[in-house]
Amino acid sequence: MNHSIAVRERSRATLLKRFFSIKAVSRIAAFLPPAALVFATAILFAEALPAIKYNGLGFLTHTQWRPGNFYVNPVTTNGVTHPVGALYGALPLILGTLESSVLALVIAVPVSIGAALIIVEKLPDHLSQTVGLFLEVLAGIPSVIFGLWGTLTLGPMLARDVFPLISQIVPNIAFFKFFKGNTGHGEGLLTSGIVLAIMVIPIIASTSRDLLRQVPRLTKEGGAALGFTDWETNRWISLPWIRTGLIGASVLGLARALGETMAVAMTSGAVLGANPSNAFLPMTTIAATIVSQLDSALTDATGLATRTLAEGALLLTLIALATNIAARLLVRRVSSTALPVGRGI
Amino acid sequence: MAQTTLDPLNTNLLGGTSARRKSTAAIIWVLASLSLVAIVGPAIWIIGSVFGKMMKGWHWSVLTEVGAGLGGGLLNEIIGTLMIVAGVAIIAGSMGILSGFFLSEYGDGLLGGVLRTASEVLAGVPSIVLGYVGYVALVVHFHWGYSLGAGILVLTVMVVPYIAKTTEISLKQVPIAYREGAEALGMKNSQILRRIVLKTALPGITTGMIIATAIAVGETAPLLYTAGYSQSLPALSFTHHPVGYLTYAVWNFYNQPSVTAQQLSFDAAGILIIAIILLIVLSRVIVAMTQKHSEFR
Predict the structure, then answer these.
(1) Taking CB atoms and an 8 Å cutoff, what residues of chain A touch B4?
(2) Which residues of B touch A27 (CB under 8 A)?
(3) Residue B160 has pLDDT above 50, yes or no
(4) Residue B214: closest CA among chain A residues belongs to which residue?
(5) What is the pLDDT of chain A when averaged over all its residues?
(6) In chain A, which residues have their Cβ closer than 8 Å to the Cβ of B126?
(7) Residues 88-107 of chain A whose Cβ lies under 8 A from any Cβ of chain B
């Protein structure tokens, strides 16, 4: 049996083997992704190199973002020409990127797993299809529209009705102090985190749903035979069964949140070098800084400003790729079909 | 896989008495139902608020006039988006389908593995980064300027991995017996490819193309510094002529002080949502049609 499958597999692969023309053409096309990847990395690195030299390791630790004085003659340090007083520190950007994405995940993971459980276990077919449709719509809405809704509708509502409540309720100790004080106008870390959560829920929820559907019926029946309630069956059998896939899907959602640009640029306030004292006040991320600063960076005649943005882009790429590869390795170990394709549509 | 050691007779682990365990289950399921609200709610809220704002000041002239400062219509953006989508569909479509074909038919070895990984890694590069690279390389170094070509090329690099992946998956699902049967009938390679393999895999490939279209319609960040922006109708030129597109209108006009400009932002957002919903419906129809005729479920 196994032998014949292997033979058939091989025959599928070889059937078109002698079709040389199409093989040659398709091979060229297949080299586009690696070529683009190498090209993009090389361009980014070449562009960022002077900035890496000038900014040094301080880029990761300084908290100020000062383009310097564009109106006096530039000076040269370490072989890099730069405006007087230029100092770039990306720490607030890096923190903003990580904090907003982690916050998104903290909200999105429980919601997604809960939704997946109820879709698979409780909903009748036609209802679970309807919920699936909503997941597709959420995945398909352009990020700029999430930003529009987040900054005009959700943000002001949160600042008016929800943030003061949160600020009142949380205890005034250590970690929770981050949720105390000035509740702002609705542009900030918490708003961005919530919007990002809504954007990654479709990715995590649809993957969890597909994984839960793959748990063998017999295994679950074992739980029922032991007298488990339906929740206990899921808690002790189904969820552990798909654990690795769940982690992979969550990390994939994290990677998406880390690189998200428009929605965050519109809902975070995108204040340069912002170092918010609490979760309600304006902040910024690496991606939001790149998209909102390139225009003004172009006015730096020495080019250091744009090169620093390239350094930021390089840093963001490294963070996003490390997350993404980790996620794909985790998901692949469980099942090759569990990879969400595209943005979940 | 499940490594949890579990003694089912140890009721403490399961949370005490039978009544208590049942109430725990009930509470959990109520919470899980609430998470459905967190999915359906925002979707309806977003679409509702955008449509509401769009309807409030809707003029049909939006569809027939080009932009004029902070007023006018969205015709230039609509045509621009259509041109970008058409370009991406043609270039990324052919590259992606060929790439997926190669991975499915000849990609069993080491080379296939490397190419597949590169494709997945590329899909993980943030879109703003690709936009920045497109700006540095195409707009500045190649002297293309803000242009249709630069925008299309960056989007192409973005969506090829998705098209390749869906194409590969659907080609692999074509039953081997179909190929064997076709060969047994003495069909030529080109006939097998066109009449059997591609035809059977067509619905899956189409779905991949729809995903790519949806991304091309809805992306903003990679286009801002490659396609640029223009308020006149897009020129039929690949380089040196910036083009407007719908997502730019949303991003650029929403925080202008002028009410007509804000209205343009909501109109563009509404049109985008309608386009996305149409694409989703289209992909559902295709899936439903194939399942009807398929012997495999």
Answers:
(1) 236, 240
(2) 102, 106
(3) yes
(4) A140
(5) 81
(6) 258-261, 287, 316-317, 320
(7) none
CATH of the domain at B139: 1.10.3720.10
Choose among A16, A40, A134: nearest Cβ to B125. A40
Q: Which domain holds residue B92?
A: 81-293
Give chain B positions within 8 Å (CB) of A43: 133, 136-137
- CB pairs below 8 Å between A and B: how many? 313
Which B residues in the span 76-135 are in contact with A, Cβ-Cβ below 8 Å? 94-96, 98-99, 101-103, 105-108, 114-115, 118-130, 132-133, 135
The verdict on residue B62 lying in a domain is no
- What's the pLDDT at A170? 78
**Structural domain tally of chain B?**
1
3-state secondary structure chain A: CHHHHHHHHHHHHHHCCCCHHHHHHHHHHHCHHHHHHHHHHHHHHHHHHHHHHHHCCHHHHCCCEECCECCCCCEEECCEEECECCEECCHHHHHHHHHHHHHHHHHHHHHHHHHHHHHHHCCCHHHHHHHHHHHHHHHHCCHHHHHHHHHHHHHHHHHHHHHHHHHHHCCCCHHHHHHCCCCCCCCCHHHHHHHHHHHHHHHHHHHHHHHHHCCCHHHHHHHHHCCCCHHHHHHHHHHHHCHHHHHHHHHHHHHHHHHCCHHHHHHCECCCCCCCCCCCCCECCHHHHHHHHHHHHCCCCCCHHHHHHHHHHHHHHHHHHHHHHHHHHHHHHHCHHHCCCCCCC
Give the model's pLDDT for residue A59: 78
Domain range A92-338, CATH architecture: Orthogonal Bundle (1.10)
- Over residues B230-286, the pLDDT tens digits come to 877 777 777 788 888 999 989 888 888 888 888 889 999 999 999 999 988 888 888
List chain A domain ranges.
92-338
Judge whether B12 is closer than 8 Å to chain A, CB to CB.
no
Smallest Cα distance from A81 to chain B, Å:
19
pLDDT for the residue numbered A1 = 39
Residues from chain A that touch B192, judged by Cβ atoms under 8 A, are: 15-16
pLDDT, position A259: 86
B10 found inside a domain: no
Q: Does residue B102 sit within a domain?
A: yes
Residue B218 Cα, gap to closest chain A Cα (Å): 5
pLDDT for residue B157 is more than 70:
yes
Closest Cα in chain B to A236: B4
Residue B168 lies in a domain: yes
Residue A339 contacts B, CB cutoff 8 Å: yes
Q: Is there a contact between A203 and A340 (Cβ–Cβ < 8 Å)?
A: yes
Global ipTM = 0.87
Distance from CA of A262 to the nearest CA of B (A): 6
Checking if the pLDDT of B46 tops 90, the result is yes
